[in-house]
Amino acid sequence: MISPIRDLDDLKTFVLVVQERSFTQVAGRLGLTKAAVAKRIQGLEKLWNTQLFYRNTRKVIPTREADLIFPKVISVIESVKELENSLTNKDELEGILRVTCVSSMAKNFISEIIEKFQEQNPKITIQLIVTDSLLDLMEESIDIGIRVGTEIPSGLVGMELFKNKISIVASPLYLKTRKKILSPKDLETHNLLYLELHKTIQFSGTHLSLSDVTKERYFLSNDAASLVQMGLKGKGVLIRSFWDIEEYIQEGKLIPILTDQSLENFGSVWVIHPSNRTPSRRMMVFRNFLESECSLRFNQ
């Protein structure tokens, strides 16, 4: 019969081994022998019926199964800590927050906001998972997601941070050497750079969509950063979320066009988290900080 986990020490040991990649170093941190650390890991492997680490003489390497289990173990440890804090009426702003967003958000404003937040809350560790895939927040044990959408997905709760305004821009050199763009129909003679998911966006007050004025597209990509670079190099008219290009607009590297005949917003940017998980105080403090910073930056 497989014995259950005795206490959190086994799970904490597992976390440290994943982080340190060494039984010896973990033994030193915990004040145990190397054999005792190995025994705890072996116990978990028997309990979960899976190999957790590849071992050699120099280091230990987590298996794919260990990588999948790791965030769930972190979540269990954090949940126990929150329970202990609630029982002692103590909910210190410390611990781990797992946050996810797309790469363009991380580059343009999320990383900066996290840096400011941690200056005020140095005991909170934030693990930022940057991916352009839509992760299952519950499955991946993620506390907070920042996403673009028209509504909050089922099973999640959230709050709108700001409208996802879509800007039409081009480089100064491009505008000097190409036909003037005075109306949406003028875009038909230009190379348009945009994500495929934006093609159905309509021009405000019309039934005309972006796809309706698309006659020339010589570069297509699902990578927003590549589209922005092509726009900066004067390879066409760029259509992007304003938060992804505001820095280049301020620097004069990209010039807004058709500002009086703009595209409709493409949904909003939301901060979301699982509905079946009671938010910790540090999670709520971070969410409120994020809302405040985004409001100052984007809702003026």
Automatic annotation (TrEMBL):
Q: Extract the Gene3D superfamilies matched here.
A: 3.40.190.290, Winged helix-like DNA-binding domain superfamily/Winged helix DNA-binding domain
Q: Which residues form the HTH lysR-type domain?
A: 6-63
Q: Does the keyword DNA-binding apply?
A: yes
Single annotated GO MF: DNA-binding transcription factor activity
Query: Which keywords, in A-to-Z order, does the entry hold?
Result: DNA-binding, Transcription, Transcription regulation
Q: Does the keyword Zinc-finger apply?
A: no
The source's domain of life comes to Bacteria
Q: Which InterPro entries match?
A: LysR-type_TF_proteobact-type, LysR_HTH_N, LysR_subst-bd, WH-like_DNA-bd_sf, WH_DNA-bd_sf
Similarity comment text for this entry: Belongs to the LysR transcriptional regulatory family.
Please name the PANTHER family in this protein's record.
HTH-TYPE TRANSCRIPTIONAL ACTIVATOR TTDR-RELATED (PTHR30537:SF5), HTH-TYPE TRANSCRIPTIONAL REGULATOR (PTHR30537)
UniProt protein name = LysR family transcriptional regulator
Q: Which organism is it from?
A: Leptospira bourretii
